[in-house]
Design brief:
This protein is rod-shaped. It is 61% helix and 9% strand. The protein has a domain of 105 residues: Alpha-Beta Complex (50s Ribosomal Protein L17, Chain: A), CATH 3.90.1030.10. It is built from 5 helices and 3 strands; from the N terminus they run αβαααββα.
Length: 212
């Protein structure tokens, strides 16, 4: 009977299971992501996250404890040099499991487990864009508001002036027309008067010739 055995045995003996998880943990630290079944990924998550937390304190004791689980010097060195530095500010949740569907051969549920801080798609080191702020001179927004309120007054005054000037312009135009009318009449009369004078002169000349 399996009373009180709450973790997944993965169908293996204790020694086989520990060796497999140690090998998978070393591969995950080295390659930053691996593909396996969902059951193994969940078991690996419980296995490696306490080791990552242990690597935050770089002491001889911590290294020996981690080495007793991983059994790989290169993986321990990688964990304490690169991984611990990058996840130092994170309070937990160092890995992420992404399901990939079923395997073609035996229809097993497949998943990818990866270290969260080493994913370039989800995590980017680019600084957040600063919000643009409008710079205003003087005492805040009081002066621009006054300028906006004064502008319509100036336009209204200009419109009123144009309205007041319109009748005056019309009166001037009418006066100019009246002054031009007599001049035009006088110009029209002068040619007729000249013609009459010329005809009278001709008549006088003809009478003088007859009298001679």
């Amino acid at each position: 009977m399996r009373h009180g055995k709450k973790f997944n045995h993965l169908g293996r003996t204790a020694s086989h299971r520990k060796a497999m998880l140690a090998n998978m943990a070393s591969s995950l630290i080295e390659h930053k992501r691996i593909t396996t079944t969902v059951a193994k990924a969940k078991a690996l998550k419980l296995y490696i996250e306490p080791l990552v937390t242990k690597s935050k304190s770089d002491t001889t004791h911590s290294r020996r404890v981690v080495f007793s689980y991983l059994k790989d010097k290169q993986a321990v060195t990688e964990l304490f040099r690169e991984v611990a530095v990058k996840v130092g500010d994170r309070p937990g949740g160092y890995t992420r499991i992404i399901k990939l569907g079923n395997r073609a051969g035996d229809n097993a549920d497949m998943a990818m487990i990866e270290l969260v801080d080493f994913n370039d798609i989800y995590v980017s080191d680019k600084p957040a864009a600063k919000k643009k702020s409008t710079r205003r001179r003087g005492g805040g927004g009081s002066k621009p508001a006054e300028a906006k309120t004064e502008a319509p007054k100036v336009e209204e005054a200009a419109v009123e002036e144009t309205k007041a000037e319109a009748p005056a312009k019309e009166a001037k135009v009418e006066e100019a027309k009246k002054e031009e009318a007599p001049k035009a009449e006088a110009k029209a009369e002068t040619p007729a008067a000249e013609k009459e004078e010329k005809t009278e002169d001709k008549k006088d000349d003809a009478q003088e010739k007859k009298s001679e």
